[in-house]
Amino acid sequence: MLLAILAALIVVVGTGLIGPTEWNWIRLTIMALTIISLLIVGTVPEHFLEHHLWDHVARQHLPRIFVWTFGTLLLMHILIEYLHLEGLIRESLWVVLVIACLVGLIPESGPHLVFLTLYVQGSVPLSILLASSIVQDGHGMLPLLAHSRRDFVQIKLINLVVGLGVGALALSLGH
Prior knowledge:
Radius of gyration: 20 Å
Number of domains: 1
Mean pLDDT: 87
Shape: globular
Structural class: mainly alpha
Low-confidence stretches: none
Number of helices: 9
């Protein structure tokens, strides 16, 4: 069934019925990821699909990612539309830089959406997004945290110092 759904998705995206009508990076990305998914689904054992993909990824992680993303976007909408924080943010970019780097220490990617959203809306400059991106590594550090808390903290501190340095340099240059 999953093979049929992915094959149908390739056809409808390829013909332009779903997604962008012109061939751009979005349509190419959707097609490439769908083709890769089709190849994975067609070649891996049923156990992998059922246990790892469905039980673990779809049922455990997908709801959390949805809640983080929805919650972040809702919070940003409320902050920007009703509290009108753009002026306050623009007046204290150095404080926002530090906050962005400190939030980047959280070993999940959801909080990073705050600064991505602020950048897309034009509320913060590229330097803030850049600093946040340098410090933020999503779930990538969780295996190291399970292995060695000391190494995890050392790497996060290095990321923090580099993120703050690059962000401060870019912010002072007006980016």
